[in-house]
């Protein structure tokens, strides 16, 4: 896989889009999509309603030199599509392990974009992880299928707090050995 280095990370090619580093100019579309209750309630960290400036603050934190999380945008402009289909990230937990997270804007659901993004990022392995894990809410079977289709193995049940739901939500946890 041919990856192009940039000052904020790597560019990872996929078939129908490119995973490129998040940039401040993405704030408008990120705000538009992340403010959708369905997106927020599928994550642990996006509040609903989305406060003014939340996307800009998220982008600034993500681009900070001391951030452990690297965020990519699913950008289909080179293929004539949307500049932001969704986001995918790797949050470094240890030197050789990260947690993967992703969301796709509702307008692009059920088109395989999340699966393609996860598979491309895992194949590229830009943080040189040995393992990548993920958790999904048990009421989000689509996200669970994304992980199993990408070769993640089910580890067990847990729970996580969802800011948008203001509640603990049952999760399924998955692991992928990369190296």
Helix content: 10-25%
Q: Count every beta strand, where a strand is a DSSP E run of 2 or more residues.
A: 9
Which H/E pattern describes the elements? EEEHHHEEEHEHEE
Distance between the termini: 15 Å
Global mean pLDDT: 95
CATH class of the domain at 4-128: Alpha Beta
* Structural class estimated from helices and strands: alpha+beta
Sheet with the most strands: spatial strand order: 1-2-3-4-5-6-7-9-8
| CATH homology group of the domain at 4-128 | Gcn5-related N-acetyltransferase (GNAT)
The assigned CATH architecture of the domain at 4-128 is 3-Layer(aba) Sandwich
The count of helical stretches stands at 5
Reported by name, the CATH topology of the domain at 4-128 is Aminopeptidase
What proportion strand? 35-45%
Radius of gyration: 15 Å
Note the quaternary state here. Answer: single chain
Structural shape = globular
How does this structure look, described?
The protein has 179 residues and is of the alpha+beta class. It has a domain at 4-128: 3-Layer(aba) Sandwich (Aminopeptidase), CATH 3.40.630.30. The chain has helices at residues 27-34, 37-40, 54-63, 113-124, 141-149; strands at 4-6, 9-13, 18-21, 69-75, 86-94, 97-104, 131-137, 153-162, 167-177. The protein has a nine-stranded mixed beta sheet, covered by helices on one side. β2 and β3 form a beta hairpin. α1 packs across α3. The longest helix is centred in the middle third of the chain and has 12 residues, at 113-124. The chain is globular.
């Amino acid at each position: 896989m041919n990856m192009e280095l940039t000052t904020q990370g790597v560019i990872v090619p996929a078939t129908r889009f490119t995973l490129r580093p998040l940039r401040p100019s993405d704030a408008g579309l990120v705000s538009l999509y992340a403010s959708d209750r369905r997106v927020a309630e599928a994550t642990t960290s996006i509040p609903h309603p989305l406060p003014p400036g939340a996307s800009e603050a998220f982008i600034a934190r993500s681009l900070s030199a001391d951030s452990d999380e690297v965020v990519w945008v699913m950008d289909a402009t080179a293929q004539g599509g949307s500049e932001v289909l969704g986001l995918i990230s790797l949050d470094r937990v240890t030197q050789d392990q990260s947690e993967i997270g992703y969301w796709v804007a509702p307008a692009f659901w059920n088109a395989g974009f999340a699966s393609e993004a996860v598979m491309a990022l895992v194949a590229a392995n830009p943080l040189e992880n040995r393992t990548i894990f993920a958790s999904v809410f048990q009421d989000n079977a689509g996200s669970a299928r994304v992980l199993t289709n990408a070769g993640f193995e089910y580890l067990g049940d847990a729970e996580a707090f969802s800011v948008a739901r203001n509640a603990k939500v049952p999760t399924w946890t998955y692991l992928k050995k990369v190296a």
